[in-house]
UniProtKB/TrEMBL annotation:
Function: DNA ligase that catalyzes the formation of phosphodiester linkages between 5'-phosphoryl and 3'-hydroxyl groups in double-stranded DNA using NAD as a coenzyme and as the energy source for the reaction. It is essential for DNA replication and repair of damaged DNA.
Top-rank lineage group of the source organism: Bacteria
NCBIfam families: dnlj, PRK07956.1
Protein name per its UniProtKB record: DNA ligase
GO MF: DNA binding; DNA ligase (NAD+) activity; metal ion binding
Binding residue positions for NAD(+): 34-38, 83-84, 114, 137, 174, 287, 311
E.C. designation(s): 6.5.1.2
Catalytic activity line of the entry: NAD(+) + (deoxyribonucleotide)n-3'-hydroxyl + 5'-phospho-(deoxyribonucleotide)m = (deoxyribonucleotide)n+m + AMP + beta-nicotinamide D-nucleotide
Keywords on record: DNA damage, DNA repair, DNA replication, Ligase, Magnesium, Manganese, Metal-binding, NAD, Zinc
Cofactor: Mg(2+); Mn(2+)
Domain BRCT: 591-673
UniProt binding sites for Zn(2+): 405, 408, 423, 429
Entry annotated with the keyword Magnesium: yes
Length: 673
């Protein structure tokens, strides 16, 4: 393909994919399957890699990320992002209304009401219709430039199409993690033995500051916009309509109100309805609609006089704590749950609430029979926030956290630095066994979608499946013993199990359930070590594991413990015998030169311009060899920030050359260093 042909094809694919993105995210009317969409995107990625000079500024390939940002530049806002005055009182709103009326000299006015979303504020700048910068609120005057990460949010347009588009304008919005995405993220963290995130807002904030934009893309952030600046609309409502017309994601929950009574009715309406929205909300923002009237009202030192935020009080109820039960997860983590006298809260009847861990029980100083305060926030189940000490009976005694597993009776352990207690009976505790099988068959692992939680329970109780490897020994007559299984459904399940043998090694490694090894770490381990045998051999030496990308001491020690267990090694052998993929098929990068031929490199630390994995690829592409530890045979230790002191000391004692990334770039140019 010629450069001219490539330019035309790239432009055509860019427009086509952006059109399908709009259908999917803005209009909820997709016409392509995920597979068809991915194929188009793969074609564009390949063409842009071959002809990077022809990549369009609104290329949808930016949505998948991949840019590494070591330091986020602090930049000044063109228009300061001021905070709003807050109130929890209807009387305060009426006083605000009186001040507005007085400030407008009795002239008629109306309000624009919109929900106050519990996310992270962002400023989006567009020039000539192209998205050029995304900045966090910061202190309101300056914020962090997170443009690369903002581009991965699929509902943020990269190019605006429409009428009357200003040469330069700014859009304010709220980035958030949808409830469903947050719950799934926490489920995945719990699944690999990590502490769950506390709330969606903090998780969103942390996600926007991740250094690798491809990791941001995986978090599936969303954004509602609510303010247009740099465009001469006469009303705020007109500006919002422009944003809708230009393809921005505007929540359809706003309303114009002609009086403060209508505003209060809107607030009452959404106090319960907001629970059905895909994100958390904590109030309502009320703005004078007319822009000239906003200018007339002006600002105080900290906030506009033409707007105010009404905050909903967190709904809290007091109810009796009847008991505490304990749940056991796949990793053996034991989680306490409060059993409550049923109480109606935020639209539902609450009977159970999260207590998180033993530390939280101690902090609350709980006793069975206490009256406790319960709130229903963004969590899957409500949480206990405090004790109504005034109602405590003197005979109640402090709650003692269980010392034994509630299922198998094994004495619990608590590792140093861990908040949770664990049941160590890995191979004999039913919920742990079933949990490992459920983890093994999930979509991101072996993807056996015809096998569900209830079927796994039946298979376990009938002693047909006690480990993931047992799935591959199942026969038709075994499945016909299950409730609800007929010949067709049994054959479908056997077919799904058979198809899973083609799942790549990266997914198999995630599926076998090594603690702390999530999907991303599993992919990097598989590509680095190539085979399960190489990974097992590497586990004999922690320093070899620590040389792999994304692997710290906690992960390395967990991998080592896994392969030291004879039962785990037998399970891997059985999976191998069943025909699963235990070797990575990821191709080595194509050679670009031999400038590093016959030279060995160990890459360690954090770098300004590269990720370690990028450096590994560059070494191989240019004829070099990668090694996993310091020895006399090592030619270069490529050292970044935060490299372990033991590596440096050993290299210095052996006379190994320690180089920086600048030195490395000089080697690539064929220069001596």
């Amino acid at each position: 393909m010629t450069a001219d042909q490539a330019q035309k094809e790239i432009a055509k694919l860019t427009d086509e994919i952006n059109h399908h993105n709009d259908l999917y995210y803005q209009q909820s009317a997709p016409v392509l399957s995920d597979f068809e969409f991915d194929k188009l995107l793969e074609k564009l990625v390949a063409l842009e890699a071959q002809f990077p000079e022809h990549r369009q500024p609104d290329s949808p390939t930016q949505r998948v990320g991949g840019t590494i940002t070591k330091n986020f530049e602090n930049v000044a806002h063109k228009y300061p992002m001021l905070s709003l005055g807050n109130t929890y009182s209807a009387d305060d709103l009426r006083e605000f209304d009186k001040r507005v009326a007085k400030g407008l000299d009795g002239n008629p006015y109306e309000y624009f009401c919109e929900l106050k979303f519990d996310g992270v504020s962002i400023s989006l700048t567009y020039e000539n219709g192209i998205f050029v910068r995304g900045v966090t609120r910061g202190d309101g005057v300056r914020g962090d430039d997170i443009t690369h990460n903002a581009r991965t949010i699929r509902c943020i347009p990269l190019r605006i199409k429409g009428k009357n588009i200003p040469e330069s304008f700014e859009v304010r919005g709220e980035v958030f993690m949808p409830k469903q995405v947050f719950q799934q993220l926490n489920k995945e963290r719990e699944d690999i033995g990590e502490e769950k995130y506390a709330n969606a807002r903090n998780t969103t904030s942390g996600t926007l500051k991740l250094q690798d934009s491809s990791e941001v893309a995986k978090r599936k952030l969303d954004c509602y916009v609510y303010y247009l600046l740099g465009e001469k609309s006469k009303t705020h409502a007109a500006g919002i309509q422009h944003l809708v017309d230009w393809g921005f994601n505007v929540s359809p929950t706003y309303k114009k109100c002609t009086s403060i009574d209508e505003v209060l009715a809107y607030i009452d309406e959404w106090e319960t309805k907001r629970a059905d929205l895909p994100l958390e909300t904590d109030g309502v923002v009320i703005k004078v609609n007319d822009i000239d009237q906003q200018r007339q009202l002006g600002f105080t030192a900290k906030s506009p006089r033409w707007a105010i935020a009404y905050k909903y009080k967190a709904e809290s109820m007091s109810t009796r704590l009847n008991g505490v039960t304990y749940q056991v997860g796949r990793t053996g983590a034991v989680t306490p749950v409060a059993e409550l006298e049923p109480v109606f809260l935020a639209g539902t009847t609450v009977k159970r609430a999260s207590l998180h861990n033993a530390n939280e029980i101690a902090r609350l100083d709980l006793r069975i029979g206490d009256y406790v305060f319960v709130e229903k926030g963004g969590e899957i189940i409500p949480k206990v926030t405090g004790v109504d000490v005034a109602r405590r009976q003197p005979e109640l005694v402090p709650l003692q956290y269980t010392q034994t597993c509630p299922v198998c009776g094994t004495r619990l352990i608590r590792e140093e630095g861990e908040a949770a207690f664990y049941c160590p009976n890995v191979n004999g505790c039913a919920p742990q066994i079933r949990g490992r099988i459920e983890h093994f068959i999930q979509r991101k692992a072996m993807d056996i979608n015809s096998l569900g939680e209830q079927t796994i329970r039946q298979l376990y109780e009938l002693e047909l499946v006690k480990s993931p490897a047992d799935l591959y020994d199942l026969k038709l007559e075994d499945l016909l013993r299950l409730d609800g299984f007929k010949d067709k459904s049994a054959k479908n399940l056997l077919g799904g199990i058979e198809q899973s043998k083609a799942v790549p090694f990266e997914s198999v490694l995630f599926a076998i359930g090594i603690r702390y090894v999530g999907k991303t770490v599993a992919e990097k381990l598989a590509r680095y070590f190539k085979t399960i045998d190489a990974l097992a051999a590497a586990s004999q030496d922690l320093s070899t594991l620590l040389a792999a990308p994304e692997v710290g001491e906690k992960i390395a020690e967990s991998v080592q413990r896994f392969f030291q267990d004879p039962e785990n090694r037998r399970e891997v052998d059985r999976l191998r015998a069943a025909g699963l993929q235990l070797e990575s098929t990821a191709r080595e990068p194509e050679k670009e030169s031999e400038v590093l031929a016959n030279k060995s490199f160990l890459v360690s630390g954090v770098f300004q311009r590269y990720e370690r994995e990028q450096l590994h690829d560059i070494v191989v592409k240019n004829g070099g060899r990668l090694v996993s530890s310091v020895s006399k045979k090592l030619d270069y230790l490529l050292a970044g920030d935060n490299m372990g002191p033991s590596k440096r000391e050993k290299a210095e004692s052996l006379g190994v050359r320690i180089i920086s990334e600048t030195d490395f770039e000089a080697l690539l140019r064929g220069e001596s260093i």
